[in-house]
């Protein structure tokens, strides 16, 4: 299959860790971002993201989804990256070859995840026991992939809760 931007396989995320639709979306070619991949293995990431993960004791093999947003913390154009592992959502601000972790949320603590659209911008928000939190803001140009990610995580949470209810 031709890749996004002419490289590799295109799409969103991986097909493991509960995010079932990743491979399906990749096969349909419905996503158009270079930072989001589905190749059966970890998604492609740039060196800055790999360094930040390593500083937290994680490697790229832990990553299911890696999606780049296009707004910085102050809503100017900039690079922020959402990284999804089997148990965490991480948001990194990228500055040149380095950056910082802006958010680290355990998936099991998420009660609800959603996207919120404003005029020209949107955001990915989670609700935990501590209340609502905006993880990452982005322009509408990149909104489709974040909506898909939110939907997949919400479905995963609902399935997990159903399984726990059956067992409990």
What does this structure look like?
A four-stranded antiparallel beta sheet has the order 1-2-3-4. The chain has 168 residues and is α+β, with helices and mostly antiparallel strands. The model is unreliable at 1-18 and 20-41 (pLDDT under 50). The protein contains three helices and seven strands.
Shape: globular
Q: Quaternary state, please?
A: single chain
The total beta strand count reads: 7
Main sheet strand line-up = 1-2-3-4
Largest sheet: 4 strands, antiparallel
Topology:
Elements (H helix, E strand, L loop, with lengths): L20 H8 L18 H9 L7 E9 L5 E9 L2 E8 L2 E9 L5 E6 L3 E8 L2 E9 L3 H25 L1
Antiparallel strand pairs: 1-2, 2-3, 3-4, 5-6, 6-7
What attributes characterize this protein structure?
four-stranded antiparallel sheet; 168 residues; alpha+beta; 7 strands
Short description:
By secondary structure, the protein is of the alpha+beta class. 25% of the residues lie in helices and 35% in strands.
